[in-house]
Every structure is written in C-alpha cells, then in structure tokens.
Amino acid sequence: MRVKKIKLKNFRCYKDETEICLDDLTVFIGKNDSGKSSIFDALEIFFNEPKNCPDKDDLNVYADDEIISITCIFEDLPEQIIIDATYPTTLQNEYMLNSEGYLEIQKFFSIGTRITNKVYAVAVHPTSQNYDDLLAINQTNLRRRAHDLNVDLSITDQRVNTQIRKAIWESSDDLRLEQLEIDLSKETAKAIWDKIKPQLPVFALFKSDRTSTDQDDEAQDPMKAAVKEAIALQEETLNRIAEQVTNQVQDIADRTVDKIKEMNQELASQLNPRVITKKWESVFNVSLTGDEDIPINKRGSGTRRLILLNFFRAKAEQESTDKDSGIIYAIEEPETCQHPNNQRLLIDAFENLVEDGSCQIMLTTHTPVLARRFNKDSLRLITKNTGGVEVLPGDNVEALNSIVDSLGVLPDHDIKIFVGVEGKNDINFLRIISKILNNADEKIPDLEKAEKEGKVVFVPSGSNVELWIAKFKDLNIPEFYIFDRDNPSGMEPHYKDEAERINALPNSEAVHTSKRELENYIHPSILISEIRNYAGPENVGRDHDFIDIPALVSQANNINTRRAKRWINTYLVEKMTPELLTEVDGDNDILNWLGNIADKLKN
Q1: Looking at the 3D structure of the chain, how many domains does it have?
Q2: SS3 of 286, please?
Q3: Which residues constitute the domain of residue 444?
Q4: What's the pTM?
Q5: 144 and 271 co-located in one domain
Q6: From residue 557, how far is each of 297, 348, 576 by CA, in Å?
Q7: Sign of CA dihedral 34, 37, 43, 45
Q8: H or E element at residue 8
Q9: What is the DSSP letter of 165?
Q10: What is the C-alpha to C-alpha distance for residues 594 and 599, in angstroms, rounded to an integer?
Q11: Of 294, 581, 557, residue with least CA distance to 432
C-alpha cells in the first residue's frame, strides 16, 4: 500500500482538519516551528502506536474538544484480502473504500484523564436498516439476519462470514450507499482491521536531533538481528557446546562441594551447585569501527549521522521484508552535518530508492541545494499564521515563489554557469561522458569535478525551471539548457516554446538534442551487446537516433522505465569512449555543448 493523503485535526498546530497530499518522494519546506515535524510525529503515532502517545500536550491549545484525529488514505491496495479461513474477498466487496475508491483509515485519540483511541474506516457503505451493520455482527447473528430477510443461503458456505454478508447485500435492491465512518473495533470489523494492519507500510522515522552513536537503536537493532540469525543457523552446534560446558562445570561444582564436606559438613549442606546459562545473543556486543579501529562515537558528527541513517534503512527494510509490505522513510533534515557532496549522494540515493518502487520517502529541509534538486511536484510549503497551518503543493505558483524567497537560490557561491537538463538521469549522463572526454582531452570540462568545486550547478528542468530562471536573472550568471528533442526528425522539438523563451533572455541559451534523447548518444554496439533483442527483427531498419531505448531496456530486463533509465545512464554510459562518441554523434552535439560550458567556466 501507498499513502496518498494524510489528514490532521487538533494535533499540535493543526487545529482545523488539514489535508496533505503525498507523492513517492515528498519534501516539506517551511520555517522552524511551522509544523513539519508534527506531520512526521503524527504518522509515527498512526503507524507505530508508541506508548503514551499522543499525550495531552499534543492537543491543539485552541481545540474545540479533546479529540485528536489522524487519518491516512491509502492507494495501491491489495487485490484480495483473506478474512475468513482461506476465502478471499476484496475491500470493495466489503464496502470498505471511500468515495474515491481508496482505503481511508481514521484514528481518534481522546485526550482526557485517560487517553483512549478508536479506529474507523471512512467508506461508502450501506445505510439501509438491516444492511448497515453486517460488519459488526458475528456469524450466528449473520445467519439469523439472513433468515429474517428471507435470504437464500443454500448455495452459500455458511461457515464464511464474507459469503453470508455478500448474499445479504446482493439480496437488496436499495442499499442506500453513503460515505460514513465504520467502527473497526466491533466483532468482524475488528477481524478485518486485524487483517489489514499487517499490510500497511512500515513507517520509519529518523529525527534530526538523535544522538547518532553506534549504540543508537537503529545501529544496534540490525546488528542484533544479524547475530540472532547467525545463531539460529548454528543453534544445534551451540546447544551441544552449551550442554558439554554445563556438564563439565556441573561436575567441577559437585567435586568442589564434596571437598567442602571433608572440611565442613554444615557449610557443604548449604550449597547447591547450579549452572545458569544465558541466551547466546547476549554474548555478542556489536559496535562499529572505521579506519585504524576508531569507533564511530569518536568520528565526526556528519560521518556518524550518515552511518546511522543507513543502519536506520537496514532496520526498516528488514521489518518490511518480515511483514511483506512497503516502507515509508521519514527523514528530518538529511543535510544535517553533511558536506555538499554527501548531500548530493543522499539525494541520489533517495531518488533511486523511490524509483525502485518499494518505498515512499518524506524529507524536511532548510537547504536550497536540496530543494532545488527535486521536482516541483515533490515540494510542499508549510506556513503557519493566525488562521492556522496551510500546506501548499509545489506546483502552486504562490508556493514556489515563497519557497525560493524563503530558501534563496544559494547561500553563497562561486558559480560560473547553471546547466539545465530534463532530469537527474541526464545529469548523470553528462557527468560521466564529460569525465570520459576529459580524460582524453583536458580542454573538455569534467562536469562532476566542476560541480564539486561549486562552479557548475545542474538544474533539472522538471523542477520548476521557469521559476528558477526568474530567480537566476538577478545573479547575472550564464544559463545553458539542454532539452530532449523527443519528436522524430522533421517535426518540431517537443520543448520548442520553452527553448525559445529561454533564448530570448539575456545570458541564457537553450539547445535541443538532434536525437530522441540523451540515451540515443550511446553507441549501438554497446546497446547490441547489453540489451537483449536490441538487434532483433522488430528493430531492423529503424533509425537508432529515435528508438525508445529506455523502453527496450525495461522490457528486456523486466524493470520499470525509471530503473531502466538509471541503468542506462550509469552502467552503459561508462562503456563509451571518445571514438564511439565520434561515430554516433556525427553532429558533435555533446562536444559543442561541453565546449560552450567550458567557455563559461573560463570567465
């Protein structure tokens, strides 16, 4: 399952019900104390139900009542769910989905002298009398209800509640379906909730103010789990050793008592030899050391945090595997204590995780470097005012302007040029191909090196290019944009209008690839050797310049297109040589682009 939306009411600064839409990767931006961390803490309460949470201090001070509401709306729902024995049903057949066809689970927390909670499904459900409460009654009463309504159960397995409910509902011509709250604490409704819960995503929260030592839970738990797993594999051998040691020690203890008897019978009678064994995992205490056996605790704070962040991921992934569910990573300020190079690596890692399709990621940040790298659809601006808290999506012009104004473009810089491309895979392509060409000719810039030196800033055009352009103009720094042609030769490039707007601006230039996209600048010989069926009959006579290479890789390797593009723009690009580029790029597109960038870097 995947969380599509969350709703908060009366939780901390969220007094009125506030709806927040989530993407695969969502980046929350806002001033301190605007409500970013509260979103993460609310989800921690919803998914993990920590003891004594929420507490009375979590209740909004202006709340009209003492009820905190936290709601999650899920999509990508399981096709089937088993409630009774092995009989499959669906959430739709059980009338458990809301008006949009999603699973909406609402948790209420009553904050009074004793904190209690209730769980409801907000669903379009029958409201007709005798048909509205079927989820709340047991099997005996279901049969009685069917009898009272003259429902024929002769072909229905009366041992299965799901089938009895289905027969009763199907017998009515007017169920009067309405959206309402179904109490999931009653009888069979609770049984359904108990079946749904294990399929919810694992929620893993990494706070910005954690201690970051090798004794942190996120570091210890994966290692302890590894110890348990290793012990389990050797359990028979270890138990045999334990028995031998126990017998030997017991024998020595018995002999000792016998010797004491020779000297003091009264003392010996008070002694009873007993060997106590401990669990094997308690024998092992795991810590991490780096170069020259220096413990993590003695390393720099940035290194400690980076290591702990990945232990945190390991723990969450292990739990997700055990549950056979997805993962939601919620990470506060991942840039904390990190060098800009590490920040870039973190962003790449987050985006790759999302592309693999197994998780959602939520981040908070105060850093323009991070915010600028993400697509505008991933951004959420949180603002707090006298009217409450407002969460605006990144594709909202007002929100984008506020994001840029509040974060700025760059805190300080030695930037020589902004290089705009369509996405992060294009960035990777240019980094690698420029390094290959630079190794053969130092006049060609190594863009990755220039990026690390702060001279080049890549701007994915998917991340609100128009807005960043407007902000860049005041910096008087050259801008160079590369757009995919997409359309075949003879047709206008897909981004013709955008390129013309950029070329009309001072100190700015936009070009199009002469081929379909950057992947088409990889030599056919590499594609033939690496992609099954690339040279197959379906491609005979086709123009290499406009073949959809990511689609071919996706089909050949049975992976999604995003992963295919990542593989092409890392693994395949690295196989290129200057000679192969000369053969495939007859118009010298790439050399001309890099030459243009090199001229700007000299200024």
Answers
A1: 3
A2: coil
A3: 417-602
A4: 0.69
A5: no
A6: 42, 22, 21
A7: negative
A8: strand 2-9
A9: H
A10: 9
A11: 581
